[in-house]
Structure formats: structure tokens, C-alpha cells
Amino acid sequence: MSYLYTLLHNYNNGALMNMLQLIYEGKSKRVYAVDEKTLIMEFKDDVTAADGLVKAVAMGKGVLAARVSAHLFNLLEKSGIETHFIEYDSKRRMRVKRLEIIPIEVIVRNHAYGSLLRRMPLYKPLQRLEPPLIEFHYKDDDLHDPLVLEEDIIRVGIVDAHTLNRIKDSTLKVNNILTNFFASKNLKLVDIKLEFGVDNHGNVILADEISGDTFRVLDENGEHLDKEVFRRTRDVGLLLKAYLRLAERIGIGIEDVSTPS
Ligand SMILES: Nc1ncnc2c1ncn2[C@@H]1O[C@H](COP(=O)(O)OP(=O)(O)OP(=O)(O)O)[C@@H](O)[C@H]1O
Ligand SMILES: [Mg+2]
Q1: Hey, which of 77, 101, 102, 206 would you mutate to test ligand 1's pocket, going by the most ligand atoms within 8 Å of its Cβ?
Q2: What is residue 10's predicted lDDT score, i.e. its pLDDT?
Q3: Atom 9 in ligand 1: which residue has the minimum CA distance?
Q4: Distance, CA 11 to ligand 2 centroid (Å)?
Q5: How many Å apart are CA 9 and CA 53, to the nearest integer?
Q6: Which of 98, 104, 208, 210 to mutate to test the pocket of ligand 1 (most atoms within 8 A of CB)?
Q7: What is the dihedral of CA 184, 42, 233, 190, to 10 degrees?
Q8: 200 CA to centre of ligand 2 in angstroms
Q9: How far is CA 21 from CA 5, 38, 42, 103, in A?
């Protein structure tokens, strides 16, 4: 890390962000290159639903998602999972290891919900899935991230069978750690979407974010503390309330989340 980076990071974060190269802007995050090994992920206040067709701005959501992600990545690291997380940067940003993302979304389901109920209507809503069900989707927004088979992934050469097994192992471990953590807060982890990447040494590492945008969590009254609130109501106020409650329930002290940057 350069001296200039440290200086600007400590004294003028705005100037630092202007200096960094924006390498990707997605629906929920901006990704900046710090150097060839490190990225900064900046969580936006944007919220989308219905496959990106519905868009809104929820002031403060970016900070909340960054704080929750950093908190949960920390927990996973302490529990022995290798993740891309380096540190929470400030407000809406975290520093991560730069990886080659495997273009697969891994969904692990503990209870039947959402697209699973549409795909297989014989499941009852919120029916327990034990052992958890793992699904793979090919990351391609234009194709709406289609469901794919393990065999498809191996045959087209996205990863080999050995790597896919490591991804499945890691997914189950992550799911286990998070399920127990949420249970200790009296919350139920319904399902979660994970992304993995590969570093220069070929290690498979948990990447992206872990927040209300990527998991479904219910409280003891069956209330959602995740993006489902927005999917159903399209109300950013209710979404922010749910994200704030989630942060508080998992022990994150929330200062003012509505100030920009
Ligand atoms: N450690 C990492 N190194 C490199 N890229 C990463 C890392 N972690 C996550 N990414 C990628 O950074 C991007 C984050 O942006 P965002 O989540 O907003 O994208 P998106 O709109 O969901 O689109 P998509 O995930 O389909 O590319 C994603 O493409 C994600 O795969
Ligand atoms: Mg994403």
C-alpha cells in the first residue's frame, strides 16, 4: 500500500476516491482498483427489484449494507473461512482482495422461498430444507441468471469438479456459521446467495457481499429484515427500517447513516 494511499485514506478520503480507477459499476456497488491486488467496494444507496426493472434510491442503505457485510465477513474469517474481506474502510466502503470472479451465483436454501416455489410448486412456503439445498445460477443479467446443473458448469469448463466440490463445501460451512449466528440472535436464515473468486494462487475465496440484498432473514414474528420488504412493498422507507433493525439485531451500533460518502 503506497504512502500516498495511507496519507489520503487518513486525511482526505474524498481525494483518495477521486484518484482511484472505477473498474466496474453494478446495480448495488461501485468497484475501484487500489492496486493489482486490492479493490475498494463502494455500496450504493440504489435498490432494485423485479430483475432490475424496479429502481429506487434508499438514502443510507449503502452504509447499512457495507456495515452488515463487513461484520459478517469478519465473523466468517474468525470461523476459519477464507474471504476477500480485508477491512471496513469507512461509511459505505470496504477493502477487499481482488479476485477473478467465478461467474456462478451459489444459492443455499434452508427454507423454501422465492424462485424455488415458482420452479417447484410442490414445496410449501418456508418448508424446511434439511440438508440445505444448493442451487447454481450462471451470472448473466441478459439471460436473467439462469439455473444451471453442476454438470453444465463442469462440462463448459467454468470450474472443474474438484473446485466445484470445494465451492459446495465452503457454501455449506458458510451457511452453517451464518445460520447459527442468526439463530443466536433469534433470527432465521431462509436462504443466501454467495459468489466465489479465485486468487493468483488458485485459492477459491468467498467474495462479493453478505447483506440484506443477498440473504433472506426472518425475525421471531416472521417479518423480513431483508430486501424482500422492498420487493413486496416498493417502499424505501420500510426497506431502510428493516435494514436498520437487522443491523441492530446483529449488534452493529448505527450512527447517522444518511450522510453521503
Ligand atoms: N473480490 C472481488 N474481486 C473482483 N470482483 C468482485 C469481487 N467481489 C465481487 N466482485 C464483483 O464486483 C461486482 C459488484 O457489483 P454489483 O454487485 O453491484 O454487480 P451486479 O449489478 O450485481 O452485477 P453482477 O454481479 O451480475 O456483475 C460484481 O460483478 C461482483 O461479481
Ligand atoms: Mg451483485
Answers
A1: 101
A2: 65
A3: 208
A4: 30
A5: 36
A6: 208
A7: -30
A8: 22
A9: 13, 12, 12, 23
How is residue 67 written as a grid cell? 456495515
Mutation probe of ligand 1 site: the residue of 22, 31, 87, 94 with most atoms within 8 A of C-beta: 31
- Of the listed ligands, the closest to the CA of 52 is 1
What are the domain boundaries of the chain? 3-99+244-249, 101-218
- State the pLDDT at residue 257: 58
Q: How far apart are CA 205 and CA 163, in angstroms?
A: 11
**In CATH terms, is domain 3-99+244-249 a member of 3.90.1030.10?**
no
The reply to whether CATH 3.30.470.20 applies to domain 101-218 is yes
d(CA 43, CA 30) in angstroms, rounded, equals 7
| Cell 478520503 found at | 13
Q: Rounded to the nearest 10 degrees, how much is the dihedral formed by the CA atoms of 27, 65, 109, 96?
A: 80
What are the per-10-residue average pLDDT scores of the chain (261 residues)?
A: 64 75 96 96 96 93 97 98 96 96 98 98 98 98 96 98 98 98 98 97 97 98 98 97 97 67 52
Which residues surround ligand 1 with Cβ inside 6 Å?
24, 26-29, 31, 39, 84, 96-99, 101, 139, 141, 195, 197, 207-208
Q: Assess contact for 115 and 83: CB atoms under 8 A.
A: no
Query: Do the Cβ atoms of 183 and 170 come closer than 8 Å?
Result: no
Q: What is the pLDDT of residues 222-234, one digit of tens each?
A: 999 999 999 999 9
- Predicted TM-score (pTM) of this structure: 0.94
CA of 26 to the centre of ligand 2 (A): 7
Residue type (1 letter), 235: D
pLDDT, position 261: 52
